[in-house]
Structures are given as C-alpha cells and as structure tokens.
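tool=predict chain=A
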Amino acid sequence: MDHSEAIRLMASEKYLLDELPPDEAEAFEEHLFGCHECAMDVRAGSLFLEHSKVELASPFPAAERVPDRRVSAGWFAWWRPAFAIPVMAVLLLVIGYQNLVTYPALKGALAENKLPRLLPAAQLVSGATRGASPSALVVHPGKRFLLPLDIAPQNVFQSYIVELYNPAGGLEWSLPVSSEEIKNTLPIGAPGVDQAGRYEMVVIGLNARGEKVSEVGRYAFDLQFARAANP
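tool=predict ok
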C-alpha cells in the first residue's frame, strides 16, 4: 500500500476503528514502517481515543446523576443538563489537550521528518567472516539509524524475514522481505533504541507458507550512544 492509497482509503481512521479487512490492515502496517505522516496520524488518533476512554470512563459525581425514573425517559435523557454538561466538559478538555499539547508536538515531529538529514549507518559484519570484529555505530538515544544489508538471494526460499536482537537477546523488531526486494541492497531505516551494546541482525529464509526454514545470515554491530554536548 502506498501513501496515496492510504489517504484514499482513509486507512488511518479505519485502522484505529478496526474497520480494515485483514489483508488491507496488514498492508497498512507495512506502509506505516516507512511513512512518517501516516504513523503520526495513527499516533494522534490513538492518543485521542486513549484520553477519551479514560475521561469518559470516570464516574460523574452522585449529585449530577439523574434518578432512575428520568433515565427511563429514553435515549434523549442523556442530553439533559445533568449529563450533557459533564460530557461536554470532558470533550472540551480532550480537544484542548490535543490542540495545546499533542498536535503541536506531532506537527513539529512531522516537520522535522520532512527535512533532509544524514543518518548514521552501521557496517554490518557477518558472523561467518573470520577475524572480523563488529563495527561501532554511534547514535543518539531514540534516533533512527540505517542498516544497509546485502544478502545473496537463494532460490530455495520464497521470502525472508529480518530480525534485530538487542544486547539482552530480546527481539527488537522483525521486517518481512520479498524475494524481489532482497536482490538489491536493503536500506533498512531502524527505529531508535534506548539500549547500547552489541546487536545482531538475523536473516531467515521462509517457505511458501511463510514458515521459517533456515538461517541465511547473522550480522553484528556495536551500538554506542553519542555523548551530550556540554552546556
């Protein structure tokens, strides 16, 4: 799914409301990995829903509740002052929070993502290379970096999956790769991390059913954090 199709389908809104068919939801999730604009839309919508649920779930004071005999009057009883005023107050609170805090921060992040920049890139060293020690990659905590990966395609696999493991051995993320994509250098834009140390990228070949068959390659690099500038 490309960005124009995501806009046309209103994929961000439907994804948050769980209205996308499974195949479109999966395609949109793959699109989110490389599209900052859609990722920001989803994050903004998710924050809005989260704050709305929290606020609307809070019980109203007993004095503001309507007696049972009035509630039975029907659905429009919700719009009587005892209910309408607290609900409107909550909605105004959520909207004000979004306008004053969330949206300005997201707009700033989106504008920053549209600017050209140089990203630090790791020199991946294969575990099969004798005598070669992993190279060091210096990044800022939480900032993205590049992992350019070259893999020799093998006809026995229908597709591949790339997995990144942190120094503790935990899986940071996984990225599906088609047999066509793997024919060229993969310029993987890795999300920022908050843990320094030795990372390993593992490439695994998959069969036609998407099952893991065997490991194709293992690549290591040492990630270090840049020191903050002295004030």
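Strands lie at 125-126, 136-139, 145-149, 159-165, 171-178, 186-190, 197-206, 212-225. Residues 69-73 have pLDDT under 50 and may be disordered.
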